[in-house]
Amino acid sequence: MVKRRRARELALQALFYMDMSPDTAEEKFVLYCKDFTPPVKASPFFSELVNGVSDKQSELDGVIEKFSSNWKVSRMACVDRNVIRVAVYEMLFCDDIPFKVSINEAIDIGKKFGTEESGAFINGILDSVRKAIESNKIDIKSK
């Protein structure tokens, strides 16, 4: 779906901005939306992703660090960590999105906004997370 891809890209941009700004998360989100209003069709999913990732960030970061081969989330490139956060959020809290879709979208968006190595880095972490979820080693679905 084109609107979901656009929502994911906008969510990445908003989360990147929020990651780099000293204001509170809510202030940053309001300011971002004021300056970069998301398209009407993408807005609900965009808001769900940004608010969901913001609300669950510590849980998401814990999962990511568990599968990132000694990489702290804080040491990851800002684009990569936020792409991964969005995808892990989808995998854990969006039951209507297949894991494969979340992973493929994250890889594509990481390649678009990140570095040459972003796609492989993102894929490695997300595939490990997927395997752990599928084998019931991760379950923090507390919506």
Describe what you observe in this structure:
There is one protein chain. The longest helix is centred in the N-terminal third of the chain and has 19 residues, at 2-20. The chain has a single domain (2-134), classed as N-utilizing Substance Protein B Homolog, Chain A. With 143 residues, the protein is mainly α. It has helices at 2-20, 25-35, 43-55, 57-66, 78-93, 99-113, 118-134. It is built from seven helices and no strands. It starts with a helix and ends in a 9-residue tail after the last helix. Helix content is 71%, strand content 0%.
Short description:
The protein has 143 residues and is mainly α. It is built from 7 helices and no strands.
**What does the largest sheet look like?**
none
CATH class designation: Mainly Alpha
Instruction: Report the portion of residues in β strands.
Output: under 5%
The SSE string, one letter per element, is: HHHHHHH
Count of beta strands: 0
Shape: globular
- CATH level-four homologous superfamily name: NusB-like
Using the coordinates shown, work out and report the CATH topology: N-utilizing Substance Protein B Homolog, Chain A
Helix content: over 70%
Q: Helix/strand-derived class? A: mainly alpha
Q: Into how many domains do the coordinates divide?
A: 1
* Low-confidence residue ranges: none
Q: Roughly what is the average pLDDT, rounded to an integer?
A: 89
